[in-house]
Amino acid sequence: MTDLKEYFSGNKLYGNNFSNEQIKKWFRDEEEGYSSLIGSNHKYEFHKFNRFHGFSQIDKKKRFNTVLGFGAATGDELLPVIERIDKINIIEPSKKLRRGHLCWKTIEYISPKFNNKLATKSNTFDLITCFGVLHHIPNVSFVFGELSRVLKSGGYLLVREPIVSMGDWRFPRKGLTKRERGIPINIFRKIIKENNLQIISERKVMFPFIRRLEYLKIQPYNSKICVLLDYLFSLLLSWNNKYHSANIFQKLRPQSVFYVLKKN
Predict the structure, then answer these.
(1) Which of 10, 23, 28, 204 could form a disulfide with 184 if both were Cys (CB 3.0 to 4.6 A apart)?
(2) What is the second-level CATH architecture of the domain 5-263?
(3) Which of 34, 37, 106 shows the shortest CA–CA distance to 71?
């Protein structure tokens, strides 16, 4: 098996320099990977979370003529600002996670290419959401550059991704797809800087104890109190940047980051 020491250290991002053939294989593995995990009756559970960390941080009067939900499935993540959106575009590989309309607005779906080269003109979208998608993709730096390219000047890019390894991805992991792995925070910051995006907000989020409330049939990220507690615990342990944990103490850290970015 591949020696992943340099990737587990968080100094390099696994998959970021894959060949086209390696990317194609990864794409096939992940195309319906998430839909197979959650099933067709899944309900979106991050509305309070996205509002607090994302939508509340952008101009509350801004209207979004054209919006892109990158990997947004049914588009539920856009509901907090649906009244301010004119046109919805969603890039989604899964055929199972699609719907015709979001509230009263038609959704235009786009099937991604295996390398995620966006067949869209530069400076197209006023708002792009990308929640929990990039860690399912090998060539993260390239894809992030594409999102930055198609974002309009003055537009917002909202991103939430895990910043921990999510275990050893060489082996099957319960509740996870075959390929997904987190993006080290230092690499994330470097990619953002390379694309000249302004960081409006960077918040480490998703503390393990709060996430485990899901096992009690609680939706922690649809609860204002749980979202606040998660933010506070994550803030207190934000110094722990260990990417691949070797013991239980190293696991006591926020597992994701939520970015609000703006293109100047």
Answers:
(1) 10
(2) 3-Layer(aba) Sandwich (3.40)
(3) 34
